């Protein structure tokens, strides 16, 4: 809260003038005294102290003059109001100069915006000068205070109407100018509105502004012969937002939720009529409430970050899709919008958007806003993100049950193409939600658990949609790769016992858990048993993901033998060799092999969604500038690629936990130095890397582990059971 000081202008002007004069006289006196003392051969320090005093008074005088100029400008612009007291008339002056400047500029910008809202073309250009101030709290408060909810709603409406007027008169130059200046004004307004409606932001305007935005949003507005709702105009502000700062959860709780309810109220009867027996023959179109630019056919002409173009009906946007765009920049905001059931409704907002309203999103064909928002809302590691991820998975799984069936060949077929195509646009956000909760897939398959209301059968149908998207399938494989790496990362080191457990980061209970033969010490046999168990457990989710992907490709009539390029790249980059976030490096050879990759931000990723970890690791790998595995060029299908990744991860674990330290390394081409150590992977050639994997198989016993992985991974009976198929066995060639 800004503090204000009351000043009487005549006296303030006199004080500023006298301070300036005093500073000048003190400086002159200091110079004269210094000259006299120096001539007399006396100590000149008194003159120096006097000069310091003159400097302080000069600084104070300059500050007073700045304040004086600001007071005059505030008074000239009638920004502040005086206050009469028995002692005289006072002007309120902010103690902080920046705050005073923000008050002045914000008020002037608000006035310019109001003039622009009433069609003043020069005012729109004037407003642009203040765009850089939208991050200043005092500016935002003064700016929004001058505009109010009515002005906030009127400005985008006026811009759209000015565009239409220019179009009617065939003035293309004017249209281009309004489009350019309008985009900047809307971006500025969106930034200010995001700050001013966030209780955690110092620019917060209070709850009243949020309530007034709802009132104005629901109200009917009119410009000429065109009527529109306030939300149709406000939506242009939301779509103009760049997410910095994001809109708050409070904005979504008050304004956002009401927008969802408002559209439902306005369109419910019309949508229902389009689906009944009489409406279906006419196409059953589910028309959403378009934003004002869409209604007038201006497409993206008032949308920042888009190229100016001739107005048309392409790239239409609805009020609700514009809201999704605003919500996608903040997990809190997206949660506030989706994790809610409006009064009187029987379905949550998320359920409503994916079922009742979904055809309205399909009408527009612009899936990016809802897809981005769903990714934001469902990929966190918090309870609400997981709840929404489970809810979305269940909803889409139920929809997919009617889309698939068993073909005569025993494989999967698409029974209802319309249903499958209807939800194809949600395949990517669904895959990201499952990838962020990849541990739930293991729990469903291994422990017969549930994920919210999602069963293993539900998850299988959801994966049929999720894996149909190339990028989604990649996200799922990356996530399961990280899940397996994390599982193997819990492997204890050779020689762990009660005496060294604490030093190595373990407990005595851990020693008992890992000591399978009960001799009080974790030896190689214990570790190999642990690795075998984890390898089999991690192979089952991999099998589910890859086999369902294969079946979806078959159902779509595509080549299921072709390996996805993304997986080939993962194998070629040896992504399975990187250390696990939080894993302790114990093996002597591992320290050299991982080189400076260890500690480059991996530990900070603890608790992060698996797909985010995979993305980080992929970026680290790309910095190497080359791949390590030449065999990825010959991979024939996704199964071979995943088996190659498993081989890399098992080799990494054996190396990391010291199981290879005891073996002779002399004469191996992947060794360096004296005594010989394994080269850092970033320095290995593909040939050296290939020899390293061979050495691990020979010395570390990974061949048996790979055989157990492959046997489980290639067993497809679970997918057969859950999807009701009779999948022909497929062993494939292993390389």
UniProtKB/TrEMBL annotation:
UniProt-recorded name of the protein: EF-hand domain-containing protein
Origin superkingdom: Bacteria
A single GO molecular function term of this UniProt record: calcium ion binding
PROSITE patterns associated with the record: EF_HAND_1, EF_HAND_2
EF-hand domain mapped to chain residues: 502-537
